[in-house]
Structures are given as structure tokens and as C-alpha cells.
Amino acid sequence: MPNVIVIGGGLAGLATTAALGSAGFRVDLFESRAFLGGRAASFPLGPGSDEVIDNCQHVLLGCCRNLLDFYARLGVADRIRFHREFHFAEPGGRVSVLKAGALPAPLHFLGSFLSLKFLSSADKLSVARGLAALGREGNRGDLDRITMLDWLREKNQTSRAIGRFWSPVLVSAINEEPARMAAAHGFQVFRLGFLAGADASRMGVPAVPLGELYRVEAWRKLGEAAIHLRSPADRIRIENGSVSGVECGGTVHKADYYVCSLPSERIGAVAPELDLDLSAFEYSPITGIHLWFDRPVTDLPHLALLDRAIQWAFNKSGGKYLQLVISASRDLLEVSRADIIAMAVRELGDFLPAVREAKLEKAHVVKEVRATFSARPGMEELRPPARTKIRNLFLAGDWTRSGWPATMEGAVRSGYLAAEAVCEAAGKAEKFLIPDRG
């Protein structure tokens, strides 16, 4: 069986390795860091610390079929805890719950939607009309040329409906503001995640640190798959239209096929012969804020926070340790760690009165400056496919043409597509990608 070198230990590279390993290929994965997962990773809180934290809270929906398949391949699917209720909190502490009821899709949220306290009757009517239009207009030819905000305004959505319903869902899912994201991606979020059925919309939160999902031990069940940490790829050697090897720390490693799953900004330095034009790619940051209090401040598993900079709060340990998420956090890039923590505690107190009485014992801030590419209109046609002009070199990564925006599901999809391309080149047809429902 041919051997494959995968460069990059983010989710795309891991998915490629899992797929090809299960298909009988000999796979060597080279990762520059001491841990796997890329931007969905965990690490010690400090030097010598036994406490491990995630760089940011990552969640999935039931519609993320390929990500769930990847977890099943690693034998860790049971470490994802699913929630069927979404808690929305307003400043002052009032909480509304959105959950699926007995009605069939796409009406399964109707009962709880009508009872939401943070939207007026006019707002709800506006949203209902918007969702109905979204269901009718999924095949519009201009959805990758207009922004989601353009479409929402075209459908006369109220400002409160945009700010309190559409935006919280979209910004968290796509890591971009509706005014900047292509409408096609907004449609995808609601069509696959909220209109397809109760199982599709359930929210999965890892019950363990992300790093435990990719433990090296898990790869032993996937055939001849070897993981090499602290092994950065310096250069992909390309000669006469073919890769002859990968340079890692002065050593050249050879294989029959190569998959590069590095971030887009690193491709040019490692494989300049590909001559990819990625100049149109922009990036959207995510800021993760970890807060530890001296007492529990909530008993809810999670909260979507309305009308503030913080968008989500996740209860990580009995209500004393919360992880906060701010997606598309461009405004925080130049803000100091101390100011971000102060803002987070202040805003959290607007929703959880117990925070005002609690003592903050420690805090940590993680800024992922290049968390995802910005899913702007016109970007889909610029995302490269898995195949390249080099016969034995393939690409994977959430920035490649996966059919999804830059999410964990998108990363896994790209890895599966790269694995399929390798199999085809090796004359061994295999299918790994699981199509979306609906």
C-alpha cells in the first residue's frame, strides 16, 4: 500500500490521516507544535501547570456529520455532550429558552420560539417571514455575491430581530458579521442547523479538553498512522511537477503522496511552486476569555448573551469556571489583556448577578488573530480544491473548497476530500465525505 505524508496537525490534517489510515495507507503526520488540533487545541495553563485549557470553546451542531464521523473513527464520540436547549440571556438576567418540540421540521422550534421574551411580536413575525423566505430562496444565484445583511434588509427584518436573533447565531457559526459574510453561508447555517430537524440543531460541547480527543493512543487503531510532534515542515521539495520529499529540520522525508494542511498564510513559504494567489484572503479573529471565580455564578450549561460584546458563556466546572467567546473580535485586537478581563467581568455581571458578589481568582485570554478566513462574498470561487497542479501533492484545510465555511466541520470535510483525492490518484477509489442532509 502506498505511503502518505501529511503536513500539519490541525483538524484537516488529522481527518486526512484518520481516513487514509483506515483505508490501509501508511501515513506519517508531521506537526510543528507539541500538541495536535491546530486552532481547536488545548494546552497547559502555564509552565509546569497540571491544568489544561482549550484555546477557545469549540462547539458543533448535530448537522456536522463529518466531524462526528471523525470523532467516531477516533473512538471519542461519547466525549461530546449534546444539549437540546439554547439559553438566551438579556442584560438584567432574564433568560429565554429555545428548544425543539413535537412538531416536525421545519416547525420544531415553533412553540418555544413564540415564547421567547427578548423578541417582540413584530420581531417574531419578521423572523418567521425571513425563515420562510430563506426556505424558498436557497437556489438564488446571487447568494455568494451579496452579504447576509443585504438579504436580511431586503426581507425587511427588524433591527431587533437582526441584532438578537440572526446575528447571535450567524456570528458564532461563521465567525463573521452579517455585514461581511456571504449570504450563502448564512443560508447554510439556518438550512442545515435549524430548519433540518431537532437532531441537526442539537449543540455538542466536548466534555473533555480538546486535546484528549486527539490523543496519540487513538491513532493506533487506524492502521499504520504515525504522529510526529515538534516536527515542522520547512519546505516541500517540488521537482519536474512532482514532490520528491519534505524537509523537516534538515531531514528529508519521502512518500508516494503528500497532503499539505498548513494554514493558508504558510503555503507560499513551504511550497512556492504551487503559485497560489491567496491575496484576497482576509481573516477574522476569535477571542476566548477564561474566568475562574471563588464561587459558582450560574447553574446553566451555557448562555447566549445579548446586546454585549461577549456572545457566549460556557459553564466548564460547576459554575465557578466560565469560558467566554467573542467571535469576529476585531475591536479587541489592540485591547490589553487587563482591559479585556475587566470588560468581561463587567459584562458578565449584567447577566449573572452572582458575578458581582464573587471574587475573580484568575483569568486567561487567548486571541486567535487568524482564527478563520473571512467568509466574504466572492470568496468561494477563490478557495482552492484538494487537487493541485503537482501530481502527488494535495491540499486540506478549512480555507480550501470544502463546501462549508471555516468551521471544524469544514476542516474535517477538507481532510476527507483530500483523502479521496489521494485514493483516486493511487487507483484505490474510496469515499469518506458524508453528504449534508437536505
The CATH architecture of the largest domain can be given as 3-Layer(bba) Sandwich
Percent of residues in beta strands:
15-25%
> Can you count the beta strands?
20
Question: Which sequence of strands runs across the widest sheet?
Answer: 8-7-16-17-18-15-19
- Helix content, binned percent: 25-40%
Description:
The chain is globular. The protein folds into 3 domains: 180 residues, FAD/NAD(P)-binding domain (3-Layer(bba) Sandwich), CATH 3.50.50.60; 90 residues, no CATH class; 91 residues, Polyamine Oxidase, Chain A, domain 2. The mean pLDDT is 94. With 438 residues, it is α/β, with parallel strands linked by helices. α1 crosses α12, α4 crosses α6 and α5 packs across α7. Helices cover 29% and strands 24% of the residues. It contains 12 helices and 20 strands. It has a 7-stranded mixed β-sheet. Strands 10-2-1-14-20 form a 5-stranded parallel β-sheet, with helices on one face. The protein has a 3-stranded antiparallel β-sheet with strand order 5-9-6.
Note the topology.
Blueprint: E1 3-7, H1 11-22, E2 26-30, E3 42-44, E4 52-54, E5 60-61, H2 65-74, E6 80-83, E7 85-89, E8 95-99, H3 110-114, H4 121-136, H5 148-154, H6 159-174, H7 183-193, H8 198-201, E9 203-206, E10 225-228, E11 235-239, E12 242-248, E13 251-253, E14 257-260, H9 264-270, E15 283-293, E16 302-305, E17 312-317, E18 321-327, H10 337-351, H11 354-357, E19 360-373, E20 393-395, H12 408-425
Parallel strand pairs: 1-2, 1-14, 2-10, 7-16, 14-20
Antiparallel strand pairs: 3-4, 5-9, 6-9, 7-8, 11-12, 12-13, 15-18, 15-19, 16-17, 17-18
Helix pairs in contact: 1-12, 2-12, 4-6, 5-7
